[in-house]
Task: inverse folding
């Protein structure tokens, strides 16, 4: 290797000042967020508004017609510009008819036509800022209120206000519903945002409990002292838990070590994995797991594995490992359908609902749909969607065959977790090693190890350590954290839908 | 799949994950900004010399949502009653509900008593003159820069429903709380 490429490799391997793409992009995201926040502040202004507009001196007069239909629709010069709003028992019109018009008016007349001859019963007011000489309002006839402004500057804002008594406007049902929601207070919307996810959570909990109940397998009375079938531990784990997690990966690592495909090194300066013999009987997912650990090297130490973990948020290889375990378990007839596809389906429903909620949330903030506070409802919907998406991976999918197979494995678990010590035989430690991966996927590795406490322990040849005189307890305390750390880190790298 | 695209996705599918956190942060920040606390810029000169143009401030939007009522001297953010959807102003509360506000001879009178305002320079002209009797839920608002402020003198008293929040902190260029002035009333 020439000097240049050696330096390049050294630079790439430097843990101290290493360039981790994941972290780099994360901080890019943080800076992007800060940039967006800065820009937001730039647009979030409250006006300390001034009133110093010069009134012009041309001689224009203008008449603006505003009308209100029976159903509350407001029309400005014939054009629909909105609806009346229910405020304090009145149907209120608050309409800016002129805003920065750009032209000076000597006289501006606004005629508001109301339905059912309600003008005399209606409260009326004109608000004029930014350069208006004088204003007045009065009722012309039972149907019309006149708003007058004189010497209206080109920058003026003129708003007409009218409060029509209840009963004049006939609101359609949909408007009545909207008005009802509009009348709800902040705390009610906030409560809604909390209640919606709670209802979803309770529904999903009861739904899952119901499914578990009808799929329930009673703890068997019998005990089986050997694995009921020659299945890889990861498949047993998937059958037992209904999903593939870090325990299945940890058990596969120990199983591979036991089969001499890898060697686990526990050294003073950290752990490492070393390639063992060449084995052409490896399962597909096992091959991929090994390629994830080693790539093209014969040894992979902690720093190298951590670099691989840190450089990825998702790992295609780890996703394929999960998919492979699910596929074998389904092919054996233990699941009705591949759990991955069901989890993905519910996750998709959850994500689509989340996106719908997110869109509605943005729109409700931007356009204040229904109510200023209605965005809380959509937040509640988004949280509910996430609950559906995340609880999907707990849906039990075992078939009758799966339940029967699991019943046998539970009988084996009973044997593994039996508190009675295993009687001594010359091969007793080999027995411990052989069943250890199954004990891990069946959640009873501690109980299984306790059964061997009384025997002299010999460290397996697939576990190399600097420490001397290691007993069973120390062996477990050295091995379990290593495989558990690697397995959890690798499991976390799977893409959404592969968990 | 092209190897570079593959690398982008798996080294990683980072964009998805960052997007997830980005959405969460944006939603939380947006909610806090919309309903509780918001950082904003003063836009204009009508609150000078108390608050200068382009000064950065923090507002509390939850304050008036409950039972709390605005107090005299509080610097408040209100929706302009003539265009509540589009215009929001920063003003100071001068007159409280049921009070009679009179502006005459460059002075503000509350229920007949001249209001002494420490933040107004002596000799400042206050016009136009007028008299306003406030209803139960109405407040009279004015800018501190009296000759150059568009406030209740022009658009009348403002109902409580138009109040958005109150300014509680000045963030930039100085970091300090917004205190309540002392009045003789």
Result:
């Amino acid at each position: 290797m020439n000097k240049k490429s050696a330096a390049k490799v050294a630079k790439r391997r430097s843990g101290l000042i290493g360039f981790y793409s994941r972290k780099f992009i994360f901080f890019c995201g943080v800076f992007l967020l800060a940039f967006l926040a800065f820009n937001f502040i730039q647009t979030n202004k409250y006006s300390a508004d001034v009133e110093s507009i010069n009134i012009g001196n041309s001689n224009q007069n203008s008449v603006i017609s505003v009308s209100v239909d029976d159903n509350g629709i407001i029309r400005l010069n014939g054009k629909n510009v909105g609806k009346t709003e229910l405020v304090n028992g009145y149907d209120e019109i608050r309409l800016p008819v002129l805003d920065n018009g750009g032209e000076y008016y000597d006289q501006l007349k606004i005629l508001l036509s109301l339905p059912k001859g309600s003008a005399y019963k209606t409260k009326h007011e004109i608000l004029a800022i930014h350069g208006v000489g004088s204003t007045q309002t009065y009722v012309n006839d039972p149907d019309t209120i006149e708003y007058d402004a004189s010497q209206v500057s080109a920058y003026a804002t003129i708003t007409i206000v009218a409060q029509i008594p209840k009963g004049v406007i006939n609101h359609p049902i949909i408007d009545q519903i909207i008005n009802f929601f509009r009348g709800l207070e902040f705390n009610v919307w906030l409560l809604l945002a909390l209640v919606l996810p709670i209802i979803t959570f309770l529904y999903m909990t009861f739904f899952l409990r119901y499914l578990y109940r009808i799929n329930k397998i009673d703890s068997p009375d019998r005990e089986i002292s050997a694995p009921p079938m020659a299945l890889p531990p990861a498949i047993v784990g998937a059958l037992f838990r209904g999903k593939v997690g870090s325990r299945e990966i940890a058990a596969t690592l120990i199983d591979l070590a036991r089969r001499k495909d890898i060697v686990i090194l526990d050294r003073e300066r950290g752990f490492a994995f070393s390639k063992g013999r060449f084995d052409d009987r490896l399962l597909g997912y096992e091959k991929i797991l090994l390629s994830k650990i080693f790539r093209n090297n014969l040894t992979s130490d902690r720093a190298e594995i951590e670099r691989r973990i840190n450089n990825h948020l998702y790992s295609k290889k780890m996703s394929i490992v999960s998919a492979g375990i699910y596929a074998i378990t389904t092919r054996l007839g233990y699941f009705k359908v591949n759990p991955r596809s069901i989890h993905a389906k519910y996750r998709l429903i959850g994500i689509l609902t989340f996106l719908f909620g997110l869109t509605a949330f943005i729109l409700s903030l931007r356009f204040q749909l229904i109510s200023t506070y209605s965005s809380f409802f959509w937040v509640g919907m988004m949280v509910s969607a996430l609950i559906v998406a995340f609880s999907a991976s707990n849906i039990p999918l075992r078939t009758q065959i799966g339940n029967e197979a699991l019943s046998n494995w539970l009988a084996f678990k009973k044997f593994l977790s039996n508190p009675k010590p295993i009687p001594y035989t010359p091969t007793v430690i080999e027995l411990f090693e052989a069943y250890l991966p199954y004990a891990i996927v069946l959640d009873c590795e501690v109980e299984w190890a306790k059964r061997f406490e009384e025997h002299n322990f010999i460290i397996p040849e697939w576990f190399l350590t600097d420490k001397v005189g290691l007993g069973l307890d120390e062996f477990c305390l050295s091995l379990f954290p290593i495989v558990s750390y690697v397995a959890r880190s690798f499991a976390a790298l799977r893409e959404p839908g592969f968990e | 799949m092209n190897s570079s695209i593959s690398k982008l996705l798996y080294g990683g599918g980072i964009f998805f994950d960052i997007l997830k956190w980005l959405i969460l942060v944006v939603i939380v920040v947006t909610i806090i900004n919309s309903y509780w606390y918001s950082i904003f810029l003063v836009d204009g000169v009508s609150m000078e010399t108390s608050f200068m143009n382009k000064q950065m401030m923090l507002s509390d939007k939850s304050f008036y949502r409950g039972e709390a009522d605005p107090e005299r001297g509080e610097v408040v953010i209100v929706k302009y009653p003539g265009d509540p959807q589009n215009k929001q102003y920063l003003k100071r509360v001068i007159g409280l509900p049921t009070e009679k506000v009179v502006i005459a001879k460059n002075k503000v009178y509350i229920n007949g008593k001249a209001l002494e305002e420490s933040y107004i320079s002596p000799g400042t002209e206050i016009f136009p003159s007028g008299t306003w009797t406030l209803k139960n839920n109405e407040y009279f608002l004015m800018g501190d820069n009296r000759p150059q402020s568009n406030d209740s003198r022009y658009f009348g008293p403002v109902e409580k429903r138009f109040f958005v929040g109150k300014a509680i902190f000045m963030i930039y260029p100085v970091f300090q709380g917004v205190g309540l002035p002392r009045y003789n009333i």
